Amino acid sequence: MPRSKKATKPKATKVPPRPDLNDSRYYFNRELSWLEFNNRVLHEAFDPRNPLLERLRFLAIFCSNLDEFFMVRVATLKQRLEAGISKPTPDNRTPAEQLLAIAERLRPMVAQHHRHFEQALRPQLAAKGIYLLDYADLKPQQQQYLQHYFEEQIFPVLTPLALDPSHPFPYISNLSLNLAVVVQDSATGVKRFARVKVPNLLPRFIALPDTLWPVHRSRKTVWAGVPIEQIIAQHLHFLFPGMTVTEFYFFRLTRNADLTLEEDAEDLLQAVEQELRKRRVGATAIRLEIQSSMPAPIRSTLIRELELTEQDIYESDGLICLRDLQLLSDLPLPELKYPAWTAAIPLQLRQTNQRFNRETLEDIFAAIRRSDILLHHPYHSFAASVQVFIDQAAHDPAVLAIKMTLYRTSTDSALLETLIAAAENGKQVTVLVELKARFDEAVNIQWARRLEQAGVHVVYGLMGLKTHAKVALVVRQEGSEIQRYAHISTGDYNPRTARLYTDVGLLTCREDLGTDLSELFNYLTGYSRQRRYRKLLVAPVNLRDQLIRLIHRESEHCQQGYPARIVAKLCALVDPQMIKTLYEASQAGVKIDLIVQGTCCLSPGIAGVSENINVISIVGRYLEHSRIFYFHNRGAGETYIGSADWMTRNLDRRIEVIAPVDDPSLAKDLQEILGTLLADNRYAWELKSTGRYVQRRPRSLAAEINAQKVFMELAEQ
């Protein structure tokens, strides 16, 4: 009988260690990621599929975005550097390393954007009869006209400022375009330096009368003009009589424009006004844009007097400050723009808008009582939905109170005029005006004063917390009961951006949401310390914890063998804890699709870390501003909308509101919006694990999926 073989112990399989999710390799730098977003904006200026004036507009937006980036983000890094703060970011970069990396990435981008305008867009504009001319190329009759214009319109408002022992270096205001002028005294031969500011109240481009337009056989001229700084430069002798102008060079300065408020300020309105004055006259210089031909002595003088370094200098061979090209992109030439779009009235409100008048008050409230209403701007009309909601509330005798948060709005907001009318009609009107909304502080202060004068109860937000939530609450007496109607949105109460940004909003009279909003407003206006809400996710109270709970729930379901999926649409994803939680969900097998329009610090597609995460960014005709969140939840999907991005400031230092959309048909609509965006191959860019974005390209024009165009077609139907 053969001997039995001795049983052998199986060899232990070596389990690879789980990746450390705090490793800096798994996080992109916030500032560099934002630069990549702006590079995608710049790409739209290069893309020949876009109409010519729209390409010009994207070039201007790129420049405008950079201004804000330097005024806030670069300024903050410089402040940290000067304060000796060397704490690295999650991607392990110090402030000094970030500033160096920004300059290295940005210089070729800036050079490319100037070169594209001079070599591509400017000639194409001329081919369409739009001539941005250089003064040196003008004919004598054109120069004669501009000399007369200079003497009559420009010369009276110019103020040359000398630099010598009796004249200290003049203050250079933020974002001002200037001329550095060298003059020589004809009597002594001594050369002196002076600065001339280009008045920002005059048009940047001075149009020639049509009688002096260039004439071409093959094309018709539709506009012709000259940059104002060139007109000033050619007439500097008017400003320095008895002197010889030997040299002149253009330059532009950017200063720190972020506000620093004391937490114990007794009067928030007064504190913001004081900081605005500092922004105008006392802010630190951050960036200097100059002509590349500027000689070393003048360059050194500016660097020394403005306390800058060579790293802060950005050179240009052409026009400085291309953000003003927005003025040309506004020319009334529809054939060179996107097809005109008229926002549609939401189906549920069409009868209301057709029949409503202030006498019969066949109102929007009846429509909301029938069912919740989902708004999708700019495809749905802001005026025919949100404006009507507030307008009817202002004039309905049954309405007792209107409460609203205001983060950003326009200077001519009809909606705020309606709130004034509501107060005059005896309604209890309360508006929380966020005075710290960056770059809109002055507009908000003006509206706050007007609202107060009309009898509106104005609250200025909470120290240490910006109120970024976009909510409105209407309280109405209906028989013996009180009924609350609410609008919860991802976008501001701003009619202008409602035509340019994509946002979603919910009109509802659900009791639990209305009660939550009542308690939220009590928190914002009084001394409430509300810690629990029935439905709302509110920052900084419970939003972070609830989002993490929802993500963890998907991980648990996946580990139990159920399908699990998360889709999130955001403007920015920066918060390290949220990124780490998403990595953990990916490791558990959860399929995650992220639509992140701007900054994204999460690195997708890394084996063992984020291989189940895909990230796209959509940069198109409209700015993708809506925030939508979907969690599969074992087939009982939950969908949310709201104001918060997944950034530390939104989760911990702002008042934000995220609300569930419980109506099954509306939740399905939101899921279809997400699905359409994920399928886009016209404006979508895929983020790679290297940090590089690659734009999707359809195989053919017939295979193109333009999500924004799809939404227009659906709204028209």
TrEMBL record:
Segments of skewed composition (Basic residues): 1-12
Sites where the protein binds ATP: N65, Y501, H625
UniProt xrefs under PROSITE patterns: PLD
Post-translational modification: An intermediate of this reaction is the autophosphorylated ppk in which a phosphate is covalently linked to a histidine residue through a N-P bond.
A Pfam family assignment: PP_kinase_N
Designated name of the protein: Polyphosphate kinase
Residues reported to bind Mg(2+): R408, R438
UniProt entry tagged with the keyword Magnesium: yes
The protein's Enzyme Commission number: 2.7.4.1
Active-site residue list: H468 (phosphohistidine intermediate)
Organism of this sequence: Leptolyngbya sp. NK1-12
Superkingdom of origin organism: Bacteria
GO biological process: polyphosphate biosynthetic process
Keyword hit for Protease: no
Cellular component terms (Gene Ontology): polyphosphate kinase complex
